[in-house]
Here is the input.
Amino acid sequence: MNERISEPVPILKVLVGSRAHGTATEASDWDHRGVFIHPTAAYYMLNSPKPKETAWLEGDVTQGHDKKDDTSWELGHFLNLAIQCNPSILEVFAAPRILQTEMGQQLVDLFPYIWDPKKVVDSFCGYSKNQRTKLLEGDRGHKYAQAYYRVLLQAEGLLKHRRLLVGLKTHPSFQTLMLIRAGCISVGNVVDLCRKLEEEVRELATKCDQKPDLYRVETWYMHMREKNFWFIDEDLRRVAQPVEREALTLEAAGSIPATPAIYINNPEWDQHYSSWPW
Here is the structure.
């Protein structure tokens, strides 16, 4: 990268997968997802390659013998996926945090303004359909069966309670999820359960009055692009809530409210937002 501008900076990293959902075994992988930002100037330099929008790493964890799967997205690419309500992307807003900068916290705070009920139905049901296809056609049926059921449980929770559940141990249907994972429920019964749950999800979407505010999201994003043109702002790259991996036990997975009043009704936030020039 051109020496006049800084390298990309990670702003958020979370734990996802079975260890976040509460369905892991000791042999389960450590799956992480994250968000990073390139300086804005990186997109406009002459005779320079286009900055990467996705970073992926798979292999052994540096310490220990666990396997890990790390995927990160550049901020703009991440937001474009988020407003489509991609289930894997939306989980990043609610999953247990390993690293979080000030900018990462601001990003998480945007969640109430990003998700749309109709797109939740389209994306979550589309994801579940894909898992059903893999369940019926391939091996590792228990893996696809539990993902088929889990993502519909998450859609139901989001539409009913405006909460995106990542840790599912407290969910009333958690035992059913674990029975599916163990292969104790037949494929036919899994499909029946999920079809019924999908019908409930679609019905809930018709009653959900949640409305996204993409203008607010885009305004924040443009402000970040302006503020981080050549270098990533030191205040925004400061780590806000570092969390040691050892603290992330199977019980650590949780969820966040989808409409936190502290952000929606925060006069200082709104004043700052309304003072931006565009």
